[in-house]
Amino acid sequence: MSLTVAMGAPTTAEADLSRLVVVGDSLSAGYQNGSLLASQQASGYAARIAAQAGVGLALPLIAEPGIPNVLTLVDPGPPPIVAPAPGVSTGRLDPSVVATNVAVPGATVHDALARRPDFPIDSLTDLVLGLPGLFLGVSQSQVEWAEALAPTTVVVWLGANDALAAVIAADPALVTPLADFTAAYRAALARLAATGARLVVANLPDITVIPFLTPAGSVGAMVEAQTGVPAWIVLSLLGLEAGDFVTPDAFALVPAILGNPGAGPLPGSVVLTADEAATIQSAVTDFNAVIADAAAAHGAAFVDIRALLAGAAQDGIVVGGQRLTTGYLGGFFSLDGIHPTDTGYAIVANAFIHALNTTFGTDVPRVNVRDVQRDDALVLPGVGHPAASLAHPSPATAAALRAVLGR
Prior knowledge:
By secondary structure, the protein is an alpha/beta fold. It has a single domain, classed as Rossmann fold. 39% of the residues lie in helices and 10% in strands. The chain is built from 16 helices and 12 strands. The strands form 4 sheets. Strands 2-5-6-10 form a 4-stranded parallel sheet, sandwiched between helices. It has a 3-stranded mixed sheet with strand order 1-11-12. It has a 3-stranded antiparallel sheet with strand order 7-8-9. The longest helix is centred in the last third of the chain and has 24 residues, at 274-297. The two termini are 40 Å apart.
């Protein structure tokens, strides 16, 4: 049975959201299609919460074609053709704006606590947190900015990058140690709670639901459909077993291995084995326990993103009679395979709004997801179940994410 998105009738917001501050990473920054870009930032879940509540949220808007250059869908395929837009961004559209959405793409929990901008202005940390402050002698981390902004409500969604680096590199050793994560997360939430603001806190999804990773079985089916080589032979040549996943970089290597079996198997740098995936999944489960405990300790509204995406992965999400999936080009995730589409972010926004309203008795109206879907170019006609799709992320998606994570 599919999860159907309720639209919700508009009502009057009664919460004290007058000074809303957002702390987080790319997911909270409104990052989409491998890029931080003004037109996409305005469609992020945080911006939609502010709009629904009728309060301001200052965004550090980035000029076209975004940073990194936004990925564009040249041809939906199959297979889809994705390429970065040409040009070079000039950075912030308005460097005089002091952002109240201080989420920085690529940030870990420790980064939110301690990473400050500096000259030269050559990173997203500098662009988000350093303008206009650096020119006034002010250099503060996300948490320090949140403290300085005297918030009434703080939205906190942190921790994804403490596991994501391991996913992108197919290397579980890059997961943040649990002790370090725990210390940093507890410290961040304690400091944000000390401002007197209400907290709205979200947990992390299972890494295997993001279409950045392609299951081995889907790889075999895709290659067989495109080449006629039986899937079992494909998997044998590539060295893949049941439960394994590949990153987008793997697909560029497949033709050479099929043409010359001696060139195989795929290198470990592009394969996340079943055991490695389980290791990262276990770490994320531990992270989520830390997040839930800290949220409860500070009376925060809790947003169960893990459950939301688990349901979407199993049953899809019906919007306007169309079932969205978590597969690549399935309507929920954008071209980078990790960050939501406009429609996906609207669904996430409603999860935050629901938690805010049920915990604090506020009355923020829900986003009309159907309206967002109508204008979303990445909700393609005839979206089907990911198992039946020949779509997968291109190597360009991995390159864009490595650029942001510095890996």
